[in-house]
Amino acid sequence: MRPESDDRYYTDGVEVPITPPAAAEPEPWGETRVVGKPLPRVDAYERVSGTAVYPADMTLPRMLYGAILGCPHPHADVRSVDISGATRLPGVRAVISAFDVPPALGPHAGTMRDQLFPTRCRYEGAAVAAVAAETPYQAFDALRAIAVDYEVLPFVADERRALEPDAPRIYDEGNRVGDPQRYARGDVERGFAEADVVLEEDYRTECEIHTPMEPHGCVAQWDGDSLTVWESTQGVYNVQPQVADALGLPLSKVRIVGHYMGGGFGSKLQAGAYTIVASLLAKQTARPVKLTITREDSFLSVGNRPPANMHIKAGVKRDGTLTALEFVGSGTGGAYRSGGTPTSFLLADLYLCPNVRTELTDIYINAGPARPFRAPGHPQSSWALEQMMDALARAIGMDPVEFRVRNTPTVSQMRNGIPYTTTGLRACLEEGAKAFRWRETRDEITRRGSQGHLRRGIGMAAGMWSAGGGGPPSTAIVKLFADGSVNLNMGASDIGTGTKTVMAMIVAEELGVPYDGVQIEHADTSTTQWASASGGSKTVPTESPAVRAAAIDVRDQLFRLAAEELQVDPSTLSLENGSIMCSTDPAKTTPLPRLRALRQRRSITGVGYRGPNPEGKAINPFAAQFCEVEVDPSTGEVRIVRFLGTNDSGRVMNLLTYRNQVFGGITMGIGYVMTEARVLDVDQTGKLCNKNWHDYKLPTALDVPADMTCLPIDVPDTEANTAGAKGIGEPATIPTGGAIANAIYDAIGVRLTDTPMTPAHVVQALAARGEG
Ligand code: MOS
C-alpha cells in the first residue's frame, strides 16, 4: 500500500511514464552458474549468532528510552492529561501529550497527526502520551504516573454490528468506509440460469495479527537540524517522506536506515506513531531515543489482517464449466481507512468464468488500523473461493484438480483479456498432483477406509498473486575495486527473505566473483539509491534487473580496459573465479588484481536501471497446494500429515531462500486457519483479550508437518523482466487455508467455513451434524 505522502512528493496523484536514464536490457540468462543454486545467506552467520544489529539491539552513547501511553479504551475522548507526576520521577527527561507536544508537527502530517496524541481515541492503544527516560523501567514507571481524564464513549468492535442503525458512530458520516467497491462482467443471472448446479455458502476468516519477532520500533538521533532514524522497516524510502511530512523537514534532512529487521509481513511498510514520537522526544531532549513498542502494543496498534465475511454463489455445468461467480464480502480496517476488505481479484481472475459480480464493503470499528499483511485480501478470498471450488467439483462428481485444470485461463479476464507473460497454473496443478501422489493417495484412502478411529483426508487449492514486480524507478550501483573485490549499493531492504543474498548472487553471476564476498550497502536513504519498499513479493523481480544491469555495466567497462591492455578483442573475454579469461588465448588469463588498467583506475563504478514491465501483458505468480490430514473425530484434533506447495514464480533465484518462503508461507497459512484469531471483547469492554504470545496461538514446530515439499515450476519468465523471476513471498501463503479445509472435509465430511479450525470448532461442527 502506498503511503499517502508518497503522492504529494512524487506524483501529485498523476502517474507519468518514467524512462530510465539508460535502458540496459541484457539478454535473458541461459545456463546460470550461481543464480538458482541453493546457497546459504550472505548474513547467515550474523543472523544465527546474534551479532546482527537490529534496531531493537542498537545502543548509542547517551541514549534514552521512550515509551508510549496507549488509550485503554476502544473509544474515548481525552479531556485532559496531567504529566506533572511523571516529570518529577527520577530519570525522566521528557513527557509529551496532546496538551504538551512540542510544536513540531508539519503541515502535511496527515493521518499521522490523527494517530499521534488524538483527543478522540478510536481504538485501544491509540497514543495518548509518551515519555523519554534514562532506562526503560523508568520510562514505563513514568507512564503510570501520567493522569489522563477520559470521557469513555460507546464503542462498536464487531463489523457485523457496526452498520446497524443504533451502532455507535465512529465518524459523523457513519461507519461505512466510502461506497462499496463493485466489479462486474458478463451477466451473472444468465450464468446461474445456464448452470446445472448452483451452490451458495457463507464464509468467515478471523482477524490475524502480524506479531513479528522484533516488535516495531526505532532509534532516533538528531545532528543539528537533520535527523537519523534506525527503523525496523521494510522500506526506508517509505518511512522517509512520512517522517519528513510529520516533522516539516526536507527529505534531505531525514535519513532512515533499515539494515536488519525482525519480520514485518506488511506491517512495517510505513512509519509508525512511535517513529515520530521517538523523533520528537529526541529533539526535545537533544539525546538519541530508542523506542521499541511493547509486545501488547504490537497486537493493538500496528496492523492486522482484517476479518472477512464472505458469501459466494457459484454456478457450474456438469462438464465442469463455471458459468457464474458472485462474491459479496465485507471486512474492517479498524478505526481508520486502511484497506479492510477481502480481494475480488481471485474471483475475477483465477478461473475461467464469463459472468462475475463482486461487491466489497469496508467498515469502521473501534479497533487498531489494519495494515497490509502478506498478500493483502487474498488468503481471505482464497479461503472462500477454494472451498467453493471443492464443493462444486464434488457436486458434479469431478476431481478437484481436474476441475481447476479445466478452468485455467491464459489471459487476465479482469484486465481486459490481456495475456499473462507466463502462466504456470496448469503446471502447478498437474505436476503438484503428480508429486503429491494425489490420485494414488485418494484411491488408497477410499480402499482402506478409516484405520481405527482416525479419519484421513486430502485436499488441495490453487491461487495467484496480483503483482509480479515493477518499476522504474529502480537503480543500483556496483563498484569493482582494484583488488577484484566488489561492493553492491541498493536501497532495498532485506526483510529476512534473503534479498541481499540473491542480489549478491546476481553480481557473482555477471562478474565471476564469489557471491559471499560481495559487500552490500543497502536500505539507507543517505547512502543508497531510491528503492520501493520490500513488499508485494516484488523485491526480487523489481531490483534484480537493476542489479544485473549495474554488474553488466562494470563488466563492459572492465572488458574495454582489459582488451586494450591484453591486446585482444573484448568479445573474447569472460570473468571467472576473479580472473579475466580470453577464449582465444588461455595464456592471457589475468587475475583482476594484476590488471594494470584496473589498478590505475582504482575502481570501476557501474550503474544499473530497471526498465518498465512489458505493455499489454499481465505478470502474475501462480500456486497450488496439496495436503493430507488426519482428524480425530472424538477430540476434534487435526494433524496435518504432509504438505506440498508448488509455485510458478518464474526463475528460482536461490533454491534455499525460495524453499524458505514456501515453507514459511505454508506455516503462516496453517496458523491463519488453525489457531490464530484476534479476540475482541465485543460485548462488554471492546478490548483485545489475547494480546500476547500465550493467548494468541502461533504455530510452532510441532504444529506444522515434518513432511513439507516445495516443488518449483522453474521456468524463467523472460518477458517479465531480465531476471525472469515473478516473486514468491505472498503466493506461497494464499491457498494454504483452503487446502486444509478441503482436506478436513475429505476426512470427516464436514465443511468448516469459519476460521480458526480449532478442535472445539471441529467437534461442534460434527455434533451439529449429529456425529462426534
Ligand atoms: Mo507485503 S503485505 O506487501 O509486505
Query: Using only CA atoms, what is the Rg?
Result: 27 Å
Mean pLDDT: 95
CATH class of the largest domain: Alpha Beta
Task: Give the termini distance in whole angstroms.
Answer: 45 Å
Sum up the overall morphology in one term. Answer: globular
The biggest sheet amounts to: 7 strands, mixed
Please give the number of β-strands.
28
**Hetero groups:** dioxothiomolybdenum(VI) ion
- Counted up, domains total 3
What do we call the CATH topology of the largest domain? Aldehyde Oxidoreductase, domain 4
Helix content: 25-40%
Low-confidence stretches: none
Polypeptide structure, described:
This protein has 772 residues and is α+β, with helices and mostly antiparallel strands. The protein has three domains: 4-31 and 470-609, 2-Layer Sandwich (Aldehyde Oxidoreductase, domain 4); 55-153 and 211-300, Aldehyde Oxidoreductase, domain 4 (2-Layer Sandwich); 308-468 and 616-768, Aldehyde Oxidoreductase, domain 4, CATH 3.30.365. The chain contains 20 helices and 28 strands. The longest helix has 28 residues, at 539-566. The radius of gyration is 27 Å and the shape is globular. Dioxothiomolybdenum(VI) ion (MOS) binds at residues 234, 265-266, 269, 372-374, 376, 535-536.
